[in-house]
Amino acid sequence: AIRMTQSPSSFSASTGDRVTITCRASQGISSYLAWFQQKPGKAPKLLIYAASTLENGVPSRFSGGGSGTDFTLTISCLQSEDFATYYCQQYYNYPYTFGQGTKLEIK
Amino acid sequence: EVQLLESGGTRVQPGGSLRLSCEVSGFTFSSYAMNWVRQAPGKGLEWVSSISGSGGSTYYADSVKGRFTIFRDNSKNTLYLQMDSLRAEDTAVYYCAKDRGSGWYNNIDSWGQGTLVTVSS
């Protein structure tokens, strides 16, 4: 199975900050990577797919990049509603695998 | 509007069985692959199983292979997960999730609200 490793696992930031989360795949997955946001007690929400395509309705402050094994999720100007846990997921092959999550907390 | 509504989650004893359902609306069900993803309390997301739009192809995580069965009834717009030989480590919120398409290389784009399965004596 392809292992997905996110970094950092958690960190604190302030509103208005620019933050970047990284996700590394244990083998090449082309651009078959998605990013999800999850808030406590809620289902995950799709933010980015195909590594860099913004899902409809997602604010443009979110952006994704990378291909192959190294990927990033960037939030350009943090808003209060962005404090949540973020997951990457590869859909290059089965079994689909998720990163362990990155919890973004308010500083 | 795409809607996914899971049901069937409850408390069950180790070794027991349970069937989860996911009733969908707002899209042509048979045209999309579907998934089950779970999340143990306080833990991350774990993909469990996927099924093609026709139901002819199924895929499982090693952790559930041989114990869980995914299937669908396209005439009823419903996805199922039959869970047998349940273990304590199967305790989780189970989410039904829709793929963007039916073939390979389609990402999950919609999720249900989840249903809680607790395996405990």
Give structural attributes:
heterodimer; A: 107 residues; mainly beta; 11 strands; B: 121 residues; 4-stranded antiparallel beta sheet; globular
Radius of gyration of chain B: 13 Å
**Uncertain residue segments of chain B:** none
Calculate the terminal CA-CA distance of chain A, rounded to whole Å: 36 Å
Proportion in β-strands of chain A: over 45%
Query: What global shape of chain A is seen?
Result: globular
Secondary-structure-based class of chain A equals mainly beta
Compressed to H and E, one letter per element, the order of chain B equals: EEEEEEEEEEE
Percentage of residues in strands of chain B: over 45%
**E-strand count of chain B:** 11
Oligomer: heterodimer
Strand count, sense and barrel status of the largest sheet of chain B are: 7 strands, mixed
Overall shape of chain B:
globular
Structural class of chain B: mainly beta
* Biggest β-sheet strands, sense, barrel of chain A: 7 strands, mixed
Number of strands of chain A: 11
Which whole number gives the mean pLDDT of chain A? Answer: 97
Walk me through the structure.
- The complex is a heterodimer of chains A (107) and B (121).
- With 107 residues, chain A is mostly beta strands.
- Chain A is 0% helix and 50% strand.
- In chain A, the strands form two sheets. In chain A, strands 2, 4, 5, 6, 9, 10 and 11 form a seven-stranded mixed sheet that branches. A four-stranded antiparallel sheet of chain A has the order 1-3-8-7, with no helix packed on it.
- Chain A is globular.
- Chain B has no helices and eleven strands.
- In chain B, a hairpin with a 4-residue loop joins strand 7 (68-73) and strand 8.
